[in-house]
Design a protein that fits this description.
single chain; 712 residues; Immunoglobulin-like; eight-stranded mixed β-sheet; six-stranded antiparallel β-sheet; sphingolipid metabolism; metal ion binding
Length: 712
Amino acid sequence: MQLYSTFLLVAILCTIHTCVYSHLIGTGKADITGPVAEIHLFGYAEMDQIANGILQRCYARAYIVVDDDSMPDGSNNDQLTGNRIVFVNVDLQSMSLTVKARVIQRLQLMFGPDMYSMQNVMISSTHTHSNTGGYLEHFLYEIPVKGWLEETVQAVVSGIVNSIVKAHYHLEKGHVTFNTHELLDTNINRSPSAYSANPPEERAQYTHNVDKDMTLLGFHTDDRDLGLINWFAVHGVSVNKTNRLVNGDNKGYASYSVEKNKKFTNTTVSTSSDIFVAAFAQSNEGDVSPHTLGFFCTGTDQPCDGTKSSKCPWRSTCQGRGPGWKVGHLDSNRVIGENQAAKAIALYLESKGKPQHTLSGPIDYKQVYWNVPETKIVQPDGSIHALCKPAMGLSFIAGTTDAEPGIGVYQETTHMPWYWRLIRIFIKTPTPTQALCHAPKPIIFDTGEMNVPHAWQPHILDLQLLRLGDVYIAGVPAEFTTMSGRRLRKAIKRTLVKHGGDPSSIRVILSGPANGYSSYVATYEEYQVQRFEGAATIYGPHTLEGYIQVFQALATSMVTHAPITLPNTIIQPPPNTASSQAPLTTHFDPLKMTMAGRRLYFDLTPRRGTDHPIFSFGFGDVIQDVSEQEYHPSTHDVVVISVTFVAGNPRHNPKADGSFLTVEQKQNDGGWKTIRNDHDYDTRFRWNLKSKLFGQSEAIVEWEISNQTERK
């Protein structure tokens, strides 16, 4: 009787104080910043956008949830056997299947073959356009960055592994909370004409033509804040294509802002510390822009939409304007990032300690490899929709209103001009079957029928569904438009409800690009318009229907515990994902896939040479020092303090989890305190090659100060 009374008392107290732990949770963070010089930034496909320094470092942020809430004293995390899921968010444009496979290889060498696998680890990206590329294994995505770059890949793989290992050894009893709310003034639709092509009755279900809700998972123990993941749809293009400094764009800034917030940490110095880990993950941002003021022809106030009817004047291009555009794109990036950071903090604190926000229930996962061109979708009337081999449309090279290239090609082009047909002859003319399958898209790159030097775009995709109680995370290797994401989430929820799920508690999150990259997914109706997003929907007009079919099968299998049954569509990938012509296998060996793929990759980046100091100087010598004058900035002034050093090429040492610079403040006791490093937003690390012949270079360190800069 006494035991029963004690149990009852504990239950009552835990209900009040939220001390019942339903899961083991762990968070970790590690640097993935690779080479910051002489490597192309990836996202805008600008051949002259080559990195020459750092604005902010880029990170992998890992979260592990285990459904075993009984960790005996004296046990260690390697002995836990409960179901677990791993979510990793990386400050990259996207993710690749090869990188994920390498991560799993390393984890299985450390923890055995069963704890971490391709099935229970999801790696999603923020979609920043300001980090280096070279980690995607298909030729179309290698062209803008001159190949497959081991320098980048090794830094990314090591960082992701380190973040997961940290989370693994930080596992402890805790709970995860869920919250969601609307965030305004942070995103707009960049292709409203395509969105308007969706059925009126469907559009009438939504207030906005982009998703405005931020969805957040909070990680807590009874006495500590561990971190958060949130999903909000907005493109990582606040920092424009003139940029040469590596950074995580608006979501990278948001993570930085939260992680240095004194609510969660006692330090104001942003390092790779994982005291509090804040991931700002991406959702269905395909047609979503951070340029909230709209799109205008450069040098004018003339609105534009990227079509020929709104053609900009000579030497002018259609470009988006962020909220701080009059100051500069970095200020717009700060505003959009800070908006997300402020909302995330509010949602996290609101859900903290609230039983109604606390998740409980099973941990589960389902994952498949999907052979997309082999997919047939049977319609209610008996007709069949077939998906296509990959291809890119002419409007793809027109770019977007976030960053129009200005090459005389326009969005919403549904016919191929004769001169482009002529040019296409020298690339690859699509077969009649391929052209018909993709209609009304005029194909400019017939990537699905091009395999030299290897496959141009993927045929096989890694799709994944994670479950945490009543929250389901769908990992997609593509950029979904607003309505595409809405349809997929609704279809998954409808399937879960059909099998007994509670419609009032089920939440479906779309996360991506995750586990790979295959450009865009537009709805069938948006595809007909052939704006950029439709032209980059590579498997034809019924691509979204294929995704829905597969994810419905994953959801069904998850809740019924039955095998996934989709004949001729769900298979294991070939051992070499860089070549779609390799024979299919029934067993997936990540090591063979990675090593076989590497033999086909190319790398045309400049070779690293030997460093030598500038004549009459030594490494580290000051070439141009800071002025000794005192600075007293007024309210609106920003003063840049700069010093130039003799340096080596930073490609020789990316300083993982370190810094190329520090700003130190003299203390009253005569000591020095570090108050800034190269991850802070008001510092810049720039590198200049002075002489390639003699291997001489210099580094410029900058610090922006204003009246807001802290004093002693």
